What we know:
This protein is an alpha/beta fold. The chain has twelve helices and 17 strands. The chain folds into two domains: about 1-175, Rossmann fold (3-Layer(aba) Sandwich); about 185-315, Rossmann fold (3-Layer(aba) Sandwich), CATH 3.40.50.10300. The strands form five sheets. Strands 3-2-1-4-5-6 form a six-stranded parallel β-sheet, with helices on both faces. It has a five-stranded parallel β-sheet with strand order 13-12-9-14-17, with helices on both faces. Strands 7-8 form a two-stranded antiparallel sheet. α5 packs across α8 (about 125-135).
Amino acid sequence: xxxxxxxxxxxxxxxxxxxxxxxxxxxxxxxxxxxxxxxxxxxxxxxxxxxxxxxxxxxxxxxxxxxxxxxxxxxxxxxxxxxxxxxxxxxxxxxxxxxxxxxxxxxxxxxxxxxxxxxxxxxxxxxxxxxxxxxxxxxxxxxxxxxxxxxxxxxxxxxxxxxxxxxxxxxxxxxxxxxxxxxxxxxxxxxxxxxxxxxxxxxxxxxxxxxxxxxxxxxxxxxxxxxxxxxxxxxxxxxxxxxxxxxxxxxxxxxxxxxxxxxxxxxxxxxxxxxxxxxxxxxxxxxxxxxxxxxxxxxxxxxxxxxxxxxxxxxxxxxxxxx
Length: 323
C-alpha cells in the first residue's frame, strides 16, 4: 500500500516518526509531505532517513514544474494528516489550497484520515468543531484525539492519537491487503488461577505481555482477533474474553472454534485442587496436603479438534532442554 503522510506544525509531529515506522514494518511504502511549520519541530532529513524517500516541502513544490500535487494524490492509496493542526483542518474543510499539502488534499479523491492535535480550548472552539464536522460530512475519517497532559501542561482532550492506534484504524478501515486480513484468530494470554480457597490460588508470574503484543500485531495486519486471557494488568482494546481458571479458558477457547489461526501464549496451570475449600483454610502447625488433578490441555485439544484451518502455535515456558 502507498501511504502519503502529511505532517503539520504541532509538537506531536515527533510522533509521526513512529507512525511512519509502523507502516514500514508492515511492508507499506511511505512518502512524506511536510508543511513549513512542521519543519520547525522535526527536520525533513529525519523523515528522509526513516522513509528512504524524498520529503516533499513547500520549497520543493515551488521549484517543481508540472503537476506534482496531482501525481502525489494519484500515487497514494491512503492519505493521513498527523498531526492535523487547527489551521490545516480549516484549510482542508474550506478548500483553501495555499501549500503543497492542502493542494494534494483537494486533488485526492478518497477519504483522508485526520489526527487532530492541539490545546483543549482550541479543539473545543466552535469554529474548529465546525471544520471537523465539514470534513466528516465530506467522507473523511477523524481520528479522535485523546485526553491527557498537553504540551502546554494543561490537562484535557487534544493529544494526538497514539501512532499504533492510528495505524490500526487505517488498516481496519481501508481493508488493507494482508495474509491475515479477514482471518479469524484466537489467542490466549496471561496466567490462570486455580483457587485453593477463597483467598489463595495456584498461578504463575505471567503478565500476558507477549500475548497482547501478538494480538495487537495480528489486528494491525487486518486479522479478526479474539483474545482469551486470564488475570493480567496489560491493557488491550480489542475483542477480549476475561477468564480466571484453566477450565474457564478451555471452555471459552472451544466456544470460539472454528478459526483460521490459534495462538496459545497463556501460562495455563497444569493442575488444580481436586476440591477447593469454600472457606479460608486456617493456619495450623501441621503440614497441608493438596490433592491436585490435571487441567485440560488447551493447545493439544485445539490441535486435535481439526477446527483450526491454517495454523496452531503453542508456547511453553521451560527451565531445562530449552531448544
